[in-house]
């Protein structure tokens, strides 16, 4: 009868059994299902867990630094700072030197620009002066212009003769000795052929 009594009256569940059935088994079931779903989607759960564990502050594996280690680190940082300060000073001196060179080049450019302006003005004055000389030879009689041109240097004479009007040129060449007229005609022709 003792056996039948045990079967008819089941013993009440203990607290531990209730905890296992109500809390622990459902939590384990949820974890297993979640792992299966995440694995099926291609997520590596263990790598994610490991990366999260590395970034948590309470999982840091480093030992607290001792005072000696901190002093060594501080000294090393001071040396690095001094090296960087020396490098900065060197770069500053190099920058100052480059700035001086640039200023010198700018001054040289300004001087060359002013010289070019002076040459341009001189060239314009020379052109104006040459035009006045040409108009003077054109105003002169051929009889008076021919001997003057014969006494000039060949380059100057050819420059003047090639700039006067063709009618004036013909009159001046008429008043020259034939040998000189032929010489200047050849020089004018050579100059016009070389300038084309």
Automatic annotation (TrEMBL):
What residues form the membrane-spanning segments? 20-40
Q: Which ranges form a coiled coil?
A: 81-129
Keyword terms, alphabetized: Coiled coil, Membrane, Transmembrane, Transmembrane helix
Q: Which Gene3D superfamilies has this protein been placed in?
A: MgtE N-terminal domain-like
Q: SUPFAM superfamilies given for it?
A: MgtE N-terminal domain-like (SSF158791)
Could you tell me which InterPro entries the record lists for this protein?
MgtE_N_sf
The name under which this protein is listed is Uncharacterized protein
Source species: Rossellomorea marisflavi
